[in-house]
Backbone:
């Protein structure tokens, strides 16, 4: 088994407001695209060739995989018809050999791909799926999953409360499985009564057909974290989990020869400081931190826990970056601004901004833009995703600013709102509901004008 198929063709509609400008598989995880991390993991696991199925926003996927030191064959899927169809599009390039298939938007702890591949080859199984237990972590109604018993999958079923595991987005097949793939019914028929599956050829239905034919499908449990980038809050969760993983593995300082650390800086923890970076006067770092090339953390900035800052950013002027935060490349967090969550490349926080959530690419937040983070009922916010109400397991009360969006001064966002890409929120607006892509929201005031002057004071 030397070839892996990576699927990165879907429309990612549930990923709003971060789906208008990129394929979600190209979203950054600790400042590297998710599919890039996945591809590198495959190469480190012994695969020598990658086949990547692209479609929606394929340019973002191609850019994410540029200069990868391995042969890559790109296959363009037309209208997206589902993961099974995507795999069939790649089948002519595979030949009669076993293959690993991975969803390009899965963020999984390093080491899982190599272990999964080895377990499958040693088992002699016809097919295998990487699986994650749902108990205590996930609502089974939110995922396509399976019932697993003693490392064997009993049944796959779409969004069923009977499932005890969810699909981990990674599969291994012997070549004869392609014949079952080609007989896909075009939708997930294995659903609870009234389950209403979309007309979409999901790969899980192919595996269910194998189970119904009496063939064994091996379940391989995930080790460590796994995040499927399905909803916007998963981008935050994946970054936080990857940052925590890297931080806990950091055993010593790694400071480039030309990096600068001022003697007045207070550093509690280990730091990775790349070439040309600077940690300046009065800076406080309370936890392990990763500082990218030519980034300046200066003039009293506070990093309050595990943090990662990308290249060529400026963190300055008594701002505070909370623990668990990832800041992208070319960003600015300055002048008493506070940031908790994820900032994508080139975004800008300044003058008393207080932000919790995910800030998309090249977002310009006006002075004193503030995110509400706590509700009066002390509950987590319900979100609407394609009309369905969901309560996220992570990041429910964050604000999600789409790429290239802007806010005016003194904008306030209520917990859990999403602002679409290319949208602008005018000065003084309180945002209570999600704002679609490409909208301008302005506050209309009613003014009262009266005569006034010295005579009002007795003159």
Residues:
């Amino acid at each position: 088994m030397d070839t892996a198929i990576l699927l990165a063709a879907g429309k990612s509609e549930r990923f709003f407001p971060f789906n208008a400008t990129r394929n979600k598989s190209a979203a950054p995880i600790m400042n590297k695209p998710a599919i890039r991390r996945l591809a590198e993991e495959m190469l480190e696991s012994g695969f020598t060739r990658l086949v990547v199925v692209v479609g929606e926003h394929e340019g973002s996927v191609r850019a994410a995989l540029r200069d990868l030191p391995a042969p890559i064959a790109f296959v363009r899927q037309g209208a997206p018809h589902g993961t099974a169809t995507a795999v069939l599009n790649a089948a002519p390039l595979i030949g009669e050999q076993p293959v690993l298939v991975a969803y390009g938007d899965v963020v999984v702890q390093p080491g899982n791909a190599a272990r999964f591949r080895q377990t499958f080859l040693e088992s002699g199984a016809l097919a295998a799926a990487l699986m994650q237990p749902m108990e205590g972590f996930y609502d089974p109604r939110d995922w396509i999953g399976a019932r697993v018993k003693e490392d064997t999958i009993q049944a796959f079923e779409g969004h069923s409360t009977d499932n005890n595991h969810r699909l981990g987005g990674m599969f291994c097949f012997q070549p004869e499985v392609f014949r079952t793939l080609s007989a896909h019914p075009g939708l997930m028929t294995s659903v609870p009564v009234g389950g209403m599956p979309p007309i979409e050829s999901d790969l899980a239905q192919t595996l269910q057909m194998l189970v119904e034919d009496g063939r064994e499908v091996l379940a391989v449990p995930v080790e460590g974290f796994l995040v499927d980038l399905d909803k916007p809050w998963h981008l935050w969760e994946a970054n936080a989990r990857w940052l925590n993983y890297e931080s806990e593995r950091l055993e010593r300082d790694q400071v480039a020869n030309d990096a600068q650390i001022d003697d007045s800086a207070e550093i509690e923890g280990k730091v990775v400081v790349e070439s040309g970076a600077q940690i300046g006067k009065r800076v406080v770092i309370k936890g392990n931190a990763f500082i990218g090339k030519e980034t300046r953390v200066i003039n009293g900035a506070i990093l309050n826990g595990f943090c990662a800052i990308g290249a060529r950013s400026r963190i300055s002027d008594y701002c505070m970056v909370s623990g668990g935060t990832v800041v992208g490349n070319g960003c600015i967090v300055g002048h008493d601004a506070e940031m908790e969550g994820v900032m994508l490349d080139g975004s800008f926080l300044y003058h008393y901004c207080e932000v919790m959530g995910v800030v998309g690419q090249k977002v310009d937040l006006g002075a004193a833009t503030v995110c509400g983070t706590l509700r009066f009922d002390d509950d987590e916010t319900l979100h609407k995703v394609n009309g369905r109400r969901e309560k996220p397991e992570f990041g429910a009360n964050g604000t999600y600013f789409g790429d290239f969006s802007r806010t005016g001064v003194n904008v306030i966002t209520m917990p859990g709102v999403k602002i679409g890409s290319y949208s602008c929120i005018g000065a003084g607006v309180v945002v209570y509901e999600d704002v679609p892509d490409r909208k301008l929201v302005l506050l209309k005031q009613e003014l009262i004008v009266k005569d006034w002057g010295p005579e009002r004071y007795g003159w």
In short: The mean pLDDT is 95. The domain at 3-230 is CATH 3.90.550.10 (Spore Coat Polysaccharide Biosynthesis Protein SpsA; Chain A).
